[in-house]
Description:
The protein is α+β, with helices and mostly antiparallel strands and 89 residues long.
Amino acid sequence: MVLPFDTACVKADQTSQNAASGTQLNWVKTPVANLIRYKPSGTYFARVRIRGKLFLQSMKTNVMSVAKLRLSDFIKEKWVMIPQPVPEK
């Protein structure tokens, strides 16, 4: 026997999971590490974690070869910009 208040929680969980997976379907992995494509617009984005901080930035192009070049410049720029933590003694 299934109680009515138990099924409401299950239905709510399924609805929230469907909504979350719907937004994930808009992002497409590419063969290049740290490069993803937003499906509706076709624009490439850099998704990079540098020293524990996540960066997501548009590469402002729909062409993969251009996005790869801009990705390497973006990563170099962020590595210089984010200071390395100083170890405590």
